[in-house]
Design a protein that fits this description.
about 150 residues; alpha+beta; Aspartate Aminotransferase, domain 1; 6 strands; globular
């Protein structure tokens, strides 16, 4: 990142950068909002983060690139399309001197939305099952209500 100020909003974060970088960051923000309209904006790890049933994606500006962090699954799913960019397990770098692949960002975000929602639904089902077992009471099972008459 160019500056390391403590920030608490997307607008504050974006305002730290030169105008041309601000435009890119705002466009990335808009692409993500369109792909994930229910996602919340927050700052996490001092980066703009979209949150929907967990962290969805982060992004950050650096001197020569935009860092995009869609989790390892987002990188793996689109590894072919991302192969021309420097990447790591959960991140990719989009150089500022090349066109930013907004369409690809949109595809990755759409994938991450579906992934987070599926994971969340799985967790909810598990919680309901566990709660159902814990909340089973005497009225649910006549055998449980029998007293031991010794």
């Amino acid at each position: 990142m160019i500056k390391k100020e403590n920030v608490n909003s997307f607008d504050t974060y974006i305002s730290q950068f030169p105008a041309e970088v601000q435009e890119i960051l705002q466009e990335i923000r808009q692409v993500i909002k369109e792909a994930a309209p229910e996602a919340e904006e927050k700052i996490s790890y001092q980066m703009p983060t979209f949150y929907l049933d967990g962290n969805l994606v982060h992004f950050a500006a650096y001197k020569n690139h935009i860092g995009f962090y869609p989790a390892p699954s987002g990188i793996e799913k689109f590894k072919q399309e991302l192969s021309k960019y420097k990447s790591a397990k959960g991140s990719v770098q989009f150089p500022l001197n090349q066109p930013i692949p907004f369409d690809l960002i949109q595809k990755i975000v759409t994938f991450r939305v579906a992934e987070n929602q599926a994971l969340s639904e799985g967790k909810q089902k598990k919680r309901k099952t566990e709660a159902g077992i814990k909340n089973k009471n005497v009225n649910d099972d006549p055998e449980l209500g029998k007293q031991d008459d010794r």
